[in-house]
Amino acid sequence: MQKILVTLGPSSLIKEVVQECDKSGVYLYRINLSHTDLEDVAQIIRKIKNWTETPICLDSEGAQLRNQRMKWEPTQLIKGEYVTVHFEEVFGDAKNISLNPPGAARQLREGDIIFLDFNHARLKVVKIQPSHCTTIVEKTGSIGSNKAADVNRKLEFDSLTAKDLKAIEIGSKLGVKNFALSFTNTKKDVEWMREVCGPEANIICKIESEQALLNLPEILALADQILIDRGDLSRQIPIEKIPFLQRKIISKANEQGKPVFVATNLLESMVSQQTPNRAEVNDTVSSLEMGASGLVLAAETAIGKFPVDAVRMIRSLIMENDKYKDGATFKSILGE
């Protein structure tokens, strides 16, 4: 039976919620380091371990660009206005932002385009200064803290941040054995993750970039498991290609006998509604039929209003899919 990975956050990092989710059979509880302060990591791990025996997975920040904290959530950036991108961390507002990882903005050049939060807002670099660069807003949009950002050319990042390294050290000391590597791009990334986490760790390599697709065979050879992050993948690749890439990745993983999980927007409407829509249900079951080893709930359980219902729905769909695979009739599907 396929596995369920549940992301814990403000909506679900509660004893009663975790224990209710456990009743549906959770494989791993995921802590997203991109949205967790380092000083909170040890306390969160201890809490979860006191509430459940279900293992924990630390999911790294990895080689990704994000804006840093904003004074107001959300903050609107207005087309035609100038925004200063600082090279050192500042609290952002409508006129000032900074980027993570530290120093990443120093790679920017005049003419670069910065896409914030899946192109909700867009900036163009117009001038470089020693401590900052000046940008002009090309597209009005509202952004919050710690949102994904992209630049129209490749920037260089380490596959693990300083925060990742410290969090992995903390997790390992507290008995965490499962670690996910965000933006796994090459076999060298996996080799470094293995060196840091140790030979006994379960390493889940996240496939969320074009480079990862091109290097998939070498990543599969070294990974224990992989995870398809359809959201971040669609930041680099046209969304109409994602369903076909998903099928291809799952097929390749199955050929190599490597478990493969599917993430992002499975039951997105359940962030605010108690039941999913028909398209989400069909997409989720299609992922199972493609051969996915498990499904990942992210926003649905981390910040959604109905985290327990989302986990129950995924379990229900897995069970229905299992019955269908066994040669179900109309009557048996209808429960008659």
Explain what this protein looks like in three dimensions.
The chain has 336 residues and is of the alpha/beta class. The protein contains twelve helices and 17 strands. The strands form three sheets. An eight-stranded parallel beta barrel has the order 1-2-3-13-14-15-16-17, surrounded by eight helices. Strands 4-7-6-10-9-8-12 form a seven-stranded mixed β-barrel. A two-stranded antiparallel ribbon has the order 5-11. Helix 1 (15-22) runs parallel beside helix 11 and helix 9 crosses helix 11 (307-325). The longest helix is centred in the C-terminal third of the chain and has 19 residues, at 307-325.
Going across the biggest sheet, name each strand in turn.
Answer: 1-2-3-13-14-15-16-17
Average pLDDT rating: 96
Return the structural class: alpha/beta
Q: What's the alpha carbon Rg, rounded to whole Å?
A: 20 Å
- For the secondary structure, the number of strands is 17
* Unreliable segments of 5+ consecutive residues: none
Order of helices and strands: EHEHEEEEEEEEEEHEHEHHEHHEHEHHH
What's the number of helices? 12
Q: Which term fits the overall shape?
A: globular
Main sheet: strands, sense, barrel:
8 strands, parallel, barrel
As a percent range, the share of strand residues is 15-25%
Terminal residue distance: 23 Å
Give the fraction of residues assigned to helices: 25-40%
Quick overview:
With 336 residues, this protein is an alpha/beta fold.
Topology diagram in text:
Blueprint: E1 3-7, H1 15-22, E2 28-32, H2 41-51, E3 56-59, E4 65-67, E5 75-77, E6 82-86, E7 96-100, E8 113-116, E9 121-128, E10 132-139, E11 141-143, E12 148-151, H3 162-173, E13 178-181, H4 187-197, E14 202-207, H5 210-214, H6 216-222, E15 225-229, H7 230-236, H8 242-255, E16 260-263, H9 278-290, E17 294-297, H10 299-302, H11 307-325, H12 330-334
Parallel strand pairs: 1-2, 1-17, 2-3, 3-13, 6-7, 13-14, 14-15, 15-16, 16-17
Antiparallel strand pairs: 4-7, 4-12, 5-11, 6-10, 8-9, 8-12, 9-10
Helix pairs in contact: 1-11, 9-11
